[in-house]
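Below is one such record:
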Amino acid sequence: MAKQWQTFVGKFRDMREGEIKIFIKDLTPGPRKYDTKFVRAIVKRSKESLPDGDILYIRSESGLKSPEPWYIKIIEELPEYVPGKPWEDVFQAIEKIENII
């Protein structure tokens, strides 16, 4: 059974296909539900493009859910934290570490 994940983007058009670093939240029922991970993963818009992928729901910063799910295959779990200030925008913090990881 495929796992279900969720991520947030500033704007839906910011989401791109391919290999990316992304924060995801586990939506699969069970004791790990709502755990958040920072991962390197392959994401695709269609199940046909990633047949062994898990379901990935995309939400905007305001919580609006994309009409169609995407699909994700986790390649690697990255460190659990992103260095930065507590009030810093998470997307800006990720950009800062792109060259570190």
Q: What stands out?
A: The chain has one domain: 4-97.
